[in-house]
Amino acid sequence: MRVYLPATTTVLRTLMDEGRLSGPTRGFAVTPQLREFYALTDADVDTEELEYAALLNAARSSLRLLDVDPGAARRRVVVAADVADAEVSPSADPDAERGEVQISGDIGIRDVASAHIDGSDAEEDVRAAVGVVLEADLGSDDAQFVVDQAEGHELAWYATQEIGPVLELL
User: Fold this and answer.
1) Of 26, 43, 52, 120, which is the most buried if we count CB atoms within 10 A?
2) Phi and psi of 28, rounded to 5°?
3) pLDDT value at position 92?
4) How does DSSP assign the chain, residue by residue?
5) Which sequence spans correspond to the domains of the chain?
6) Burial class, 100, CB count within 10 angstroms (exposed 0-12 / middle 13-18 / buried 19+)
7) Which distant-in-sequence residues (6+ apart) come within 8 Å of 4 by Cβ?
8) Quick one: CA torsion of 106, 169, 121, 153, rounded to 10 degrees?
9) Is residue 105 within 8 Å of residue 83, measured between CB atoms?
């Protein structure tokens, strides 16, 4: 199953240095709940669109991780990985976001399909969004506007072999 892991550049460096991220890990995937939610508005929604929605949920979660990782570059990071279905279960948290899952095992570098990272042009907007993402979660329209500015930036796609060189530039 393809999962999208919210991360920071610090987390990505750990993955590269240690060759794995220790589980259990929180992530996002195309779950029945995510599929059902999008089917309400578009009966023809396809898997690729649902995977993009899961990636965007992970990117939003990356903003929350940046709030507690002051040493990380102010860029959203999402790691896409393929893990065994048996290692993925729906989140037990009743307040979990749509598509949120728990991955029971470690995520090895061999499991990683790609990394998605904001470009330098997003840093100012991401920095501002990190400061208000929790307020946006609580319903503040002003904070949501700031978060929307950050989320308006497309994440760049990097193959596994490109992650190390990209991190050297950050």
Assistant:
1) 26
2) -135, 145
3) 81
4) -EEEEEE-HHHHHHHHHHSEEPSSEEEE---HHHHHHHHHH-TT--HHHHHHHHHHHHHHHHHHHHHT-TTS-SS-EEEEEE--GGGEEE---TTPPTTEEEE-S-EEGGGEEEEEE--GGGHHHHHHHHTTHHHHHTT-HHHHHHHHHHHTSPPEEEEHHHHHHHHHH-
5) 2-118+154-160
6) buried
7) 27, 28, 29, 51, 54, 55, 57, 58, 78, 79, 80
8) -20
9) yes
With beta carbons less than 8 A apart as the criterion, state whether 27 and 99 touch: no
CA distance 75 to 11: 12
**Contact between residue 117 and residue 156 where contact means Cβ atoms under 8 Å apart:** yes
| Nearest Cα residue to 82 out of 114, 49, 35, 50 | 114
Average pLDDT taken over every residue of the chain: 93
Residue with tokens 């497309």: 154
For 130, what's the count of Cα atoms within 13 Å in the CB-facing half-sphere? 21
Q: Say which range, 31-40, 134-143, 161-170, has the weakest mean pLDDT.
A: 31-40
Q: Output the six-digit token pair for 97.
A: 């976001």
